[in-house]
Amino acid sequence: MDFLMLAVQILVFPGLLFMTAMGVLLTGLGGKLVARLQNRVGPPVLQPWYDILKCFGKEMIVPEHAGRAVYIGAPVLGFAVLCTAGFFIPMGGRAVFSGTADVIVVLYLLTFCSVMAMAGAASTGSPFAGVGVSREMVAMISYELPFVLILLAVGKLAGSDTGGVTFSLQSIAEWQRIHGPVLFHWSMIPAAIAMLFVISCEAGLHPFDVAEAETEICEGLLAEYSGLPLAFYRLTHCVRLFIMTALFAALFLGGLAAGNDGLAVLLLVAVCIVLTFLCMALPHGICARLRVEQLFRFYWTVVTGLALVSLVLVWFGL
User: Fold this and answer.
1) Who's near 19: CB < 8 A, 6+ residues apart?
2) Which of 307, 284, 306 is nearest to 40 (CA)?
3) Helix (H, G, I), strand (E, B) or coil at 13
4) DSSP 8-class letter at 102
5) Helix (H, G, I), strand (E, B) or coil at 91
6) Within a 13 Å sphere around the CA of 240, how many CA atoms are in the beta-carbon half?
7) Packing angle between helix 169-179 and helix 127-158, nearest 10 degrees?
8) CA–CA separation, 234 and 24 (whole Å)
9) What digits encode the pLDDT tens for the residues 215-255?
10) Where do the structural domains in the chain lie, given as residue ranges?
């Protein structure tokens, strides 16, 4: 019975099926919101799902000089790793797995997912993909520093009762159940704002999508991809948006645990939609894409500064 319950959690809720459905829904809603901001009708909400299904049905063309195993395996492994990261994040008050350092595990798995995208692109030998790889690496270096500072700030606040730093998402959620959401502590507001920017860049959203700039480098990382591998890359892009918004809810809103599981899930969905508007639709509708050097400078000054302010305030008990 325990094994059956674990299988349901991994495959259905809060696992693979739920994360995939939410990722596609948020991506579709984001596109619709961007269109409304620009006074357009926009594509259907399910357009990302139609695109993914179309890719699954298309022929897979492996470039002549590509490493076939890496070309096919990287997007599949990246998607699997991303879903594994989602298993550690409390959704609706529950998580598939939990531990004493699952924050570090989630950070590692998210980074590994980006590395898989770069490995797959590098295996194609395309000059456009090569530029995309270098840009993706700069973007990853840019947001990783503030991301780590944010996690340290939240962990320090949640571990204040014991005088240490906690890296357990369950412990962070339990602390918020007793003391209230982290978001409502004034010292953590800068970190929450910084996290919104981290979500945008981690999920590769406009105006921070320098690695897949269609008008500059022909999709960059995905320039040589088609068929099944491209479908997995697009699915990964959708699910990553949900994973990051759910992580925000876990870190700053206690995972939105409620006495009723259905209510907790509805609250999570509502928060993820609001975060999609703030991190995807609003910046896309009002900002032009940043240049690589602008992105790096912005994240290592403004975003890192916001995260560092919260960390210093929390460290001194303010």
Assistant:
1) 83, 86, 239, 242, 243
2) 284
3) coil
4) H
5) strand
6) 29
7) 50
8) 10
9) 667 777 887 888 888 999 999 999 999 999 999 999 998 75
10) 2-315
